[in-house]
Amino acid sequence: MESRKKPLSDEDFIKSLEGVYHIQGRDFVDAGIVSSEVKKSLQGKGIPESIIRRVAVITFEAEINIISYAQQGTIQLFIEPDAVIIEANDIGPGIADIDLALQEGYSTADDSIRELGFGAGMGLNNIKKFSDVFELTSDVGQGTHLKSIVKLSG
Amino acid sequence: MNLETLAEALGLKCKCCWEKLKTTEVKGGYAGDLLSDVMANSNAGDIWVTRQVHQNIVAVASLKGHAGIVIVQGASPDKDTLDRAGREGIPIMVTDMSKFEVVGKIYQLLSEA
After folding, report:
1. A11-151 has which fold?
2. ipTM of this predicted structure
3. How much is the pTM?
4. Histidine kinase/HSP90-like ATPase domain: which residues (chain A) (predicted)?
């Protein structure tokens, strides 16, 4: 685990990078497509179905957050020998109070988002719940950065 | 219980993927209109009962491996929803019954199975 503290070398970064997916803000029509791609790319690699389901939930919620709130963003998927890592970065308003955003039920979603069944203030909690390691940082006015690790042994 | 037996017992109308009903096993069920709730708490093989009709429900059902979706209260799925369901092979059924009524009947059927 000591090696995780060091940044990955370029070679290791490329080796474990499984996919990079672009997401456009407010594009609810395509919502779920990235999660579906991520799920497909994990299948057939000997990764347990229970792990794939957790990654699918995490990716879906991250995707919906970017669509709902950001101008655009990316989701990167890494497969390492001991874990699947999902990183979501967006260009958007950011989150002023992360502790508040992590309170279940807290949401800044408008009615157009709520009508679709999103914006219940559960998304970030779901990501945290299904992750073994969860990191959320934000620069207000610039964007939000999410890193979620799902250990293969978990 | 397979989906065809369940759909016939409840008089559900199939709007998509009828060819999959016979071979799809229903292991349980979940009801909800909040997609994050359904993502977090439903299980693979569940029949999902909802009032939502837009195409994001297909994404959720596909990601979770649901047996199918039942849309209640006479609501009609959007055309985009049916197109996407066809592409992803997710059965969609509709009924005029309320969510409460459908869930009660499904629960009873699965308990007796």
Report:
1. Heat Shock Protein 90 (3.30.565)
2. 0.91
3. 0.92
4. 57-146
